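Hypothesis: this fold can be encoded by more than one sequence.
Test: take the structure tokens below, design a sequence, compare later.
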């Protein structure tokens, strides 16, 4: 059923009280095709959302908001080494991770507690603690909003990059992801390369961790650093970690010896945006109803009553400050709507 003039506050993790002219939840491909075929909405602006965890609403949306709630987790193939699972785009991402962990399927445990839905995961190529979606991705099915045909995207066709995919560029607003298939292992190697995981496991007095224990360690880390959107509006990490040439980083180290980095390839390193923002003095900064989280400088928050424009303005101040201090550009991971 299509609703009119609905507040989107419950449907975005920033808790921005913007309104949608029209709103509907969809739980099947057939219903989605029907809605997109209606003459009333053919020329209307459309916004497709999942968990609303990676968008910033700048204004009311004068169009149709479609919330994708396609459910289900099914086995496509299985053998003694692994399994391919197909999950509906509306499945909560963390629920999918816990399903994998409970069934001892390796590959997504480092991505525990990331907010959002399965359908949004490939759009951003979500990642954490040394793992990205592309590492376990098999394929996805998406509806072409012009032809209403279902198309399959393999790994190459998705053009994954760091928090990037074709769905943020050429295919933006042209496709709706319906389901995603993942290639998971039954005897996988645990990825413990990030120090925070090792340190947390050590604190848990675990030297030979199981799949479930790695998952629990990641959950513990995220809970200690990131605010619960149900309590404080946020979208998790607001900025991407910038990648810069190693030669440039070496010059940065001369001035800031404690600057951290992670290797990308033989030419590039990734510098934590949270470190840059914190060193520039923004951690815990507050402007009215919005601010920078007290425990994690990478997270911008809405303390209640804040607007998307206020959060955007704060983000731009932070970007300018970091560039002036380090000569490094940091770019939003969050999608601005409006």
């Amino acid at each position: 059923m299509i609703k009119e003039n609905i507040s989107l506050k419950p449907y975005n993790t920033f808790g921005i009280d913007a309104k949608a002219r029209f709103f509907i939840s969809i739980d099947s491909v057939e219903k989605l095709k029907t809605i997109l075929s209606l003459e009333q909405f053919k020329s209307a602006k459309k916004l497709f959302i999942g968990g609303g965890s990676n968008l910033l609403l700048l204004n009311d949306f004068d169009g149709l908001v479609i919330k994708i709630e396609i459910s289900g987790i099914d086995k496509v193939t299985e053998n003694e080494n692994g399994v391919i699972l197909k999950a509906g785009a509306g499945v909560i991402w963390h629920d999918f991770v816990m399903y994998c962990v409970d069934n001892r399927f390796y590959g997504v445990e480092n991505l525990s507690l990331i907010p959002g839905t399965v359908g949004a995961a490939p759009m951003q190529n979500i990642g954490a603690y040394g793992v990205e979606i592309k590492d376990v991705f098999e394929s996805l099915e998406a509806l072409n909003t012009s032809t209403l045909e279902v198309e399959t995207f393999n790994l190459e066709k998705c053009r994954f990059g760091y928090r990037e995919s074709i769905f943020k560029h050429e295919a933006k607003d042209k496709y709706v992801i319906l389901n995603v298939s993942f290639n998971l292992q039954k005897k996988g190697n645990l990825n413990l390369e990030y120090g925070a995981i090792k340190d947390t496991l050590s604190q848990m007095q675990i030297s030979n961790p199981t799949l479930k224990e790695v998952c629990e360690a990641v959950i513990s880390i995220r809970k200690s650093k990131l605010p619960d959107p149900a309590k404080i509006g946020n979208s998790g990490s607001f900025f991407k970690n910038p990648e810069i040439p190693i030669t440039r980083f070496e010059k940065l180290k001369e001035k800031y010896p404690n600057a951290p980095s992670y290797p990308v390839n033989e030419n590039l390193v990734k510098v934590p945006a949270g470190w840059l923002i914190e060193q520039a003095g923004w951690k815990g900064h507050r402007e009215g109803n919005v601010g920078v989280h007290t425990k994690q400088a990478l997270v911008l928050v809405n303390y209640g009553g804040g607007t998307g424009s206020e959060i955007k303005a704060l983000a731009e101040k932070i970007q300018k400050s970091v560039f002036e201090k380090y000569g490094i550009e940091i770019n939003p991971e969050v999608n601005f709507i409006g």
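Residues 162 and 192 are 20 Å apart (CA to CA). The longest strand covers residues 175-185.
Hypothesis status: open.
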